[in-house]
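Run log // design_07
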C-alpha cells in the first residue's frame, strides 16, 4: 500500500515499487519525482543539484505550474510558474489496482481548489483538476512541466509539432511559423507551441526508445532545453546536466489559458508512455 515516508532529505514522499513501475511522488508541489516501467532506464529526469528543502521548487520530475506559467502577469515579486509547485499538498487517497498505483493529492489556494491524480504503472497518467471556488471568473494557466531523461539532448528528435507555429522565448517571444521539420536541439530552446492537441514523440536512439507525451484539456506544448549558458546560471542545475534532459510540457497557457467561471472545474491531463525501439 502506498504510504508517506521521509526521503533522504527528510521530505515527505511516496515511494512506488510494484511489478509495473518504480517511482516516487513528493508532497512538496505534488511533484512526481521518478517513474520507470520495468526494464527501462528512468523516464523522468531530476537534477543532482535539486533542492529537496521543502521550500524551493524541485528541479526535475513533473513540477505543476499554476495558476500562472512563467512570470506573473502583473506582480514582479510573485514566484515564477505559480504557487502550486512549492506548496505542501495533501495525500488524500492512495490505492493499488492491478499493479497500478493511484494517488490522489489535493491543494487549496485562495479562490482555487486543486485535485491531482497520479496513475503510475506501465504508463504514467497525470490529471490536474482545477476548480474556481471564488465568485468571479478567474483566468488560469496550467502546465505539467515534465522533465524527460535522454541519452544526449544533441542526438534526440521530437516529432508531432512539425505543423504547429510556436512562440520562441529565446528570440524575444517572436512567433515562428510551423517549420515542417522535427525538433532537434542545437542551442538553448524554449518554445511554446500553441493551439495543438497533437501527441508529441521524443526519439532517443541512444537509449533505443521513444517516449510519447499525450495531453488532454490543454492546447499548449512547451519544449525546453537550457543548453550550456542557462544551465550554468541555474544553481539547482548541474552545469553539464543539460545534455541528459529535455522538457516536453503539457499545458494550457497564454492564448490557450482557461477562464474558469465560479464553480467551474477543468482538467489538464498528460499521459507518458515509453517504448523500446531495439
Ligand atoms: O518551461 C520552460 C521554462 O519556462 C523556461 O523558460 C525555464 O525558465 C524553465 O521553464 C524553468 O523555470 P524555473 O522557474 O523552474 O527555473
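design_07 sequence
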Amino acid at each position: 500500500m502506498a504510504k508517506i515516508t521521509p526521503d533522504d532529505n527528510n521530505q515527505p514522499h511516496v515511494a512506488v515499487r510494484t511489478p509495473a513501475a518504480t517511482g516516487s511522488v513528493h508532497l512538496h508541489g505534488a511533484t512526481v519525482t521518478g517513474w520507470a516501467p520495468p526494464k527501462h532506464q528512468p523516464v523522468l529526469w531530476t537534477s543532482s543539484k535539486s533542492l529537496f528543502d521543502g521550500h524551493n521548487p524541485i528541479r526535475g520530475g513533473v513540477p505543476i505550474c499554476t495558476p500562472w506559467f512563467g512570470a506573473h502577469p502583473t506582480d514582479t515579486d510573485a514566484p515564477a510558474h505559480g504557487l502550486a509547485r512549492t506548496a505542501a499538498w495533501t495525500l488524500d487517497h492512495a490505492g493499488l489496482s492491478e499493479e497500478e498505483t493511484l494517488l490522489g493529492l489535493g491543494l487549496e489556494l485562495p479562490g482555487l481548489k486543486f485535485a491531482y491524480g497520479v496513475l503510475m504503472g506501465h504508463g504514467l497518467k497525470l490529471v490536474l483538476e482545477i476548480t474556481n471556488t471564488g465568485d468571479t471568473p478567474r483566468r488560469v494557466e496550467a502546465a505539467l512541466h515534465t522533465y524527460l531523461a535522454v541519452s544526449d539532448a544533441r542526438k534526440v528528435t521530437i516529432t508531432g509539432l512539425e505543423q504547429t507555429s510556436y512562440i520562441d522565448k529565446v528570440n524575444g517571444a517572436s512567433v515562428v511559423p510551423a517549420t515542417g521539420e522535427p525538433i532537434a536541439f542545437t542551442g538553448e530552446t524554449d518554445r511554446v507551441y500553441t493551439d495543438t492537441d497533437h501527441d508529441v514523440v521524443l526519439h532517443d536512439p541512444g537509449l533505443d526508445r521513444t517516449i510519447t507525451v499525450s495531453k488532454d484539456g490543454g492546447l499548449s506544448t512547451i519544449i525546453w532545453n537550457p543548453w550550456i549558458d542557462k544551465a550554468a546560471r541555474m544553481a539547482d542545475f548541474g552545469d553539464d546536466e543539460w545534455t541528459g534532459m529535455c522538457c516536453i510540457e503539457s499545458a494550457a497557457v497564454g492564448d490557450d489559458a482557461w477562464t474558469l467561471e465560479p464553480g467551474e472545474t477543468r482538467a489538464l491531463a498528460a499521459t507518458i508512455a515509453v517504448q523500446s525501439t531495439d
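Residues 4-150+210-276 form a domain with the Beta-galactosidase; Chain A, domain 5 fold (CATH 2.70.98.10).
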